[in-house]
Amino acid sequence: MRWTEGFIAVDWGTTNRRAYRIDQTGKCVDEFEDHKGVLTVPGGGFPVAVQEIRDRLGDHPLLLAGMVGSNRGWKEAPYVPCPAGLDELAQKLVWAGDREAIVPGVSYIGNAHADVMRGEEVQLLGAVAAGLVDPMGLVCHPGTHNKWALLRHSRIERFMTVMTGELFSLLKEHSILGDLLQSSVAVNDAFKGGVRAVAEHETLPADLFGVRAKVLLGQAKKEDAASYTSGLLIGADVRIGLSQPFGAQVTVIGRPELTSLYAAAVKEHGRETTELDGEQCFLAGIQEIAKRIS
Amino acid sequence: MRWTEGFIAVDWGTTNRRAYRIDQTGKCVDEFEDHKGVLTVPGGGFPVAVQEIRDRLGDHPLLLAGMVGSNRGWKEAPYVPCPAGLDELAQKLVWAGDREAIVPGVSYIGNAHADVMRGEEVQLLGAVAAGLVDPMGLVCHPGTHNKWALLRHSRIERFMTVMTGELFSLLKEHSILGDLLQSSVAVNDAFKGGVRAVAEHETLPADLFGVRAKVLLGQAKKEDAASYTSGLLIGADVRIGLSQPFGAQVTVIGRPELTSLYAAAVKEHGRETTELDGEQCFLAGIQEIAKRIS
């Protein structure tokens, strides 16, 4: 094994994959992204799908993270229970071949709650290792399923997933609100109004119907509906995240178009945030794990 | 006009219509139900769709309620603002023809909320007129969009719509929880557990993801997921309804398979309910409106 001579890091999710060629100095020298997510790979198709990556980025060892380690992926990598840090992840790598290792996800059970993540853990812990996040901080990772993770001594102590992104998509694509939610979402007065509407009183499933009623009754403009609804959903999400007994610095990690919405919602709650790009955090985290492969 | 000699009452919704032949004594002597909801009627197709009803039930005056009075229906019947009772509805009937009257819906604007209903108002006010509901009571009307209505002196004082039924359908048909939600919902320990989970702390969008995580981590049985999820959604709904400053008797009106779920959730909150069949309430209400046609 010659991981010290460089490797290929793959962030392989449900609908997309991103692959990065990391050289021996830790620099990313080549990369690509495509839509060959885990769900598009046919049964038994992972060796071919992996070979495609090497055809493009070279014949190097592979370190893979994300849904590729789920029961719908290449080989299941059982969840590592909280508290989990980079050491625990590296110890529990699952080997799909001699030169192909899969990073496990993280699970949490406690406080009558159960939760799982796969992929976000590399970004969260990478950001800590890179010194970008308080090792005792609170991290928000927006996406289809937003994660709120509490760190303790550089490990994920516990976390909670909020279905915000998926709920917005369901409402936009399949609900009675669909025709109102086609415009783009912006941090404007409508968005902030949505955040404030659910900040005190949690009436989200009623406020959602109110989006349509307000437009019908001339109390709101149709073009504001998407931003207002996003504000309601992200506002309820942030209220949940901040209502946990977490007092720490809040960092939002992810795609910039999402982190800006969450940062704005957190700000409406009177808290400041730091926004970090998820891709850079992934690269930091995956290299820390590679270093731990003996 | 000879409404005193009987008429046809039609509860014409988005996806279904139910028509009843009411004789001069107020008795329902014939009826039918089909799937010719408002959305299935082509542009300009209502005269034909109405003739079908008369072909089956006789050449009588028609009194129609529900989405048939919406902007996607036969003729728009503008919402009557709260407070609204049977007198207000009868005064604001919209005539689609000489012998075809449409009952308007009801709107509410206040407390930073806006809301609309169409069809439920006939059932709610019919139940009051029939002496089945406290004229100062709180009424819950489950369906795709559940309504909580506060009555004052036999009129609808204000109301709030909660998107519970539609959210459950979206999750069942299109979400990551879909495969877990295919079994039938029952009032069992899982359902009651869902109600209690959201009774104190409103973390619904997080608890929904937890449904999947709990099954993945062996903390819950897959066959309980549908009942538990229904408990979460109806529990959040009931928490909203009961958290209003309403202290009155709670009546649940609708289809028995839905009213039993809401009654059970209200009971978990320590409140008793009366359940009423929506169809009987509709017939009571629509006849009260017919009586007011001079």
Question: Can you give a write-up of this model?
Answer:
- The structure is a homodimer of 294-residue chains.
- Chain A has 294 residues and is an alpha/beta fold.
- Chain A has two domains: 3-134 and 280-291, Nucleotidyltransferase, domain 5 (2-Layer Sandwich); 162-277, Nucleotidyltransferase, domain 5 (2-Layer Sandwich).
- In chain A, 36% of the residues lie in helices and 24% in strands.
- Chain A has helices spanning 46-57, 86-91, 120-129, 164-174, 189-197, 204-216, 225-243, 256-268, 278-291, and strands at 7-12, 17-22, 28-34, 62-65, 80-81, 94-97, 100-102, 106-110, 113-117, 138-141, 146-152, 155-162, 250-254, 273-277.
- In chain A, helix 3 (120-129) crosses helix 9 (278-291), helix 5 packs across helix 7 and helix 7 (225-243) packs across helix 8 (256-268).
- Chain A is globular, with a radius of gyration of 20 Å.
- The termini of chain A are close together.
- The interface between A and B is large, with 45 and 45 residues.
